[in-house]
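Task: complex structure prediction.
Instruction: return structure tokens for all chains below.
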Amino acid sequence: MAEAGWRHQAFAGWGRVARAEMDAARPERVAEVARALAAAGREGIIAYAGGRSYGDAALNAGGRAILTSRLDRLLDFDPASGLLAAEAGVTFEDLRRIFLPRGFLAPVTPGTAFATLGGALANDVHGKNQDQTGNFGAHVAWIDLMLPSGELRRIGPEDRLFRATAGGLGLTGIIVALALRMARVPSRFVRLEERRVGDLDEFLAVLEAARSKCAYSVGWVDALASGRQLGRGIVESADPAPPEPGDDFKEPRRKRLPFDLPGFALNPLSVGLFNALYWRRVPAAGRERRVALDKFLYPLDSIVGWNRLYGRRGFHQFQCLLPEEASHQALRAILETCSGSRAASFLAVLKTMGRDGVGLLSFGGRGHTLALDFPAFSGVDDLLIRLERLVLDHGGKIYLAKDARLSAEGFARMYPGLPEFRAMLAEVDPTGRMASDLSRRLKIKAGSP
Amino acid sequence: MNPPVWVVLGASSSIARAFARLAAEDGADVILAGRDGEDMERSAADIRIRGGGKVEVRHFDAADRASHPAFVEALPRRRLNVFLCFGLLYPQEAIERDPSLAEPVIAVNYLGAVSILSHLAPRLAAEGAGAVVVLSSVAGDRGRPSNYVYGSSKAGLNAYLQGLRAKLAPHGVSVTTVKPGFLDTAMTFGLPGMFLVASPEACARACLAYAAKGREVAYFPAFWWLIMAIIKAIPESIFKKLKL
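Output:
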């Protein structure tokens, strides 16, 4: 039997490829977090929050985890400044429900509202407004971090530890609470412009025009298209819309995917068909309409458990950032590799990024970011190795929140902040209490084998 | 007219938090009462930001019975509703290793509850209306080898509540005994043999509904009524051979 307060349980990353059995505690008060940390053994401990990291960032096989779901209280809100203090387990869904009707929105939000604030900071996430607004960590005024020793410390952006914690993958301790500068929105709607683009050149040109003009921009790429159609897709750009008389918002209706689709359901044929139809969804002349913010920001949340689409074996998500000067050539090479491998990816997202993250290991910078989904078919590891090499050759980096396969060598080359991050870890966690499958795979800690 | 007041006794548990949030959302004022003042202040802040009724925090210790009269005396002179959800559970094996652990279980679950409710009863009766909702347990329905100290403390509580219900009914005060099955709380997290576990939010919502309807005894989720009816119907001569 497990010790009192701990539960032995199987966990998986959102992509369901990375899996781990862990002993988990679920503290409901801050003092209980310290007690759980103290129980970390040789295998270490890591925070597990919304479970929306695709790979192994929140997994710690054979070790322990601290579930933060019950640390879900709002602590302070100043409507004048928009500063919100909240416990780390509060989700973007909570913020959406409570603050959107009052005209406030999280300044940066990932593509799912079921992620938590703590997880958003630990991965220094970004949204469709990265170009102008940067990553999540840039909007955080302070962090209440419980160090691996159990000491609770409030740190601000001027602290070195802040730069190690934002984007630090949970390895500096447990994020207990944080203060976020909420953004004001004029209504619960955006004015959304959708445009069909026929190839990669046009895609990049339309994105380029949108990045300085609009608050939000994002594109969907048909990753199965090849030849002259390589890089065809749809570009969406949006701005907060002013209120209109008769504005009426309904809570989004959600459907649940109650079972795993069989693994063969998503194959090049079915995905290719879907992609072709999806591309034609937008009229050739483009269109403009008012859309609810929730629906625009969180399109996939309308199907609860959509990750089961890929069947029991799960899927990999691959997201890279390519520096501007190399991105055109690199994107072409990556898309050619994908369509050549006939790896069915029907969630392929291309957008621009404009700002560096505040963290030492943040995923940010100026360039283009491409995200692809691959069902876990037999050749997927080879494909991911080829893609890693392509990204390295073009001076890009791979997003750790999505990743389960990047090599330690590749990681070290992509993230120049690693030596300083290691030095910080040696300071705050000399005994190596914090650990995850990702930290071992990427050999993040100094002197790790 | 004043909004209703809910006094939440044992306010640091997940079920108390969920209950307080829902009650305040419905417009009730909430008094959070418990031992961990710092933690309750965080819950109070949470409720204030979410909006709804007013909320305040008071110190309350179920085991410190001498403090109960002063706690009741200091409550606002308004119509009160009471949600009692404190409780203490040590695993039966732990009590068998150290029998002295039985005493705090009884002191909190039975003596503590009897004491505070007995001090509250005259106030409730004098107001001529109100609701008392007490979180008991299915474990009080039958003593089982796996947790009979905890179960007996709840059985005693259930009998007390039967009497209190009859005593307060003529004064327009309802008393609800809630018998939850397995709830997904800190008390049960990681315990072996849990199944059909219900969320604290669902239970809290049900408790508010019981109060509104003046229910007497409610199993939560309701199907536990059937499970417990079967368990109670087993003759003792057979029951003693079962390892339940």
